[in-house]
Amino acid sequence: MNVLIVFAHQEPRSFNGALRDIAVQTLSRQGFTVEVSDLYAEEFEARATARDFGKRADNRFFKYQAEQRAAASGGDHSFAADIAREQERLTRADLVIFQFPLYWFSVPAILKGWFDRVLATGFAYGGGRFFEAAPLYGKRALLSISMGAGEDRFGPSALYGDMNWILHPIRVGTLNFCGFEVLEHHIVHGPASMTPGEREHVLKRWRDRLISLSNEKPLPFAHASDFEAASQRT
How many Cβ atoms sit within 10 Å of the Cβ of residue 161? Predict the structure, then answer.
């Protein structure tokens, strides 16, 4: 199995960095090929601009999705080098682990930019290809997340609401939409307030999960064809 870890944290020695390192070590020892996209270290561009394309399809009016489609089709058009690099890494991967801290109930801006720029129309979706018909269908993804708030803050009747609801836009609106089957999220609450012993326990649980990761079943995946068939019957 080929694994891509998309790492979105400024500090390599952070708790997120420790989770990344354990994933690299544990998966490599199992014989998997592991690549890491270290977005901050590689200075990945978060903004989606005209500089994302080697040659514009339309120099009169800039429409980002139209330029993505042209670049994905090849020929005289192409993506910028950092996008092309990430798309090549993604193409090789069977599993993508997104390692990041939760920012404002979402991903850091640099990871949002990765979604915007790398998961391009024509490459990851488009032309009626989404969910089970998407080009990336068959790949799996896992969200490995740290956050400052305690576990008691999340739940159907808790202050911040249910975590599945909070992550729904990422899981379904981004990953499922592009064809990824998503494994159960890995969430660590309040690592900064843990004792060294508590951190070691959390890291061990992550290591233990990674050892059996290939046997996990993904979360429910909504097939667009089921909904289209239902709408045609009504």
Answer: 14
N-to-C CA span, the chain: 43
d(CA 175, CA 158): 26
Where in the chain are the domains? 2-233
What is residue 94's DSSP assignment? S
Which residue spans within the chain are E strands per DSSP?
2-7, 33-38, 95-101, 140-147, 181-182, 186-189
Backbone angles phi, psi at 142, to 5 degrees: -140, 130
Record the pTM. Answer: 0.94
Asked if 39 and 7 touch (Cβ cutoff 8 Å), the reply is: yes
Under CATH, to which class is 2-233 assigned? alpha beta
Provide the token pair at 102. 């939760």
Segments of 2-93 assigned E as strands: 2-7, 33-38
**CA atoms lying within 13 Å on the CB side of residue 134:** 28
56-110 tens-digit pLDDT: 889 999 999 999 999 999 888 999 999 999 999 999 999 999 999 999 999 999 9
d(CA 193, CA 196): 10
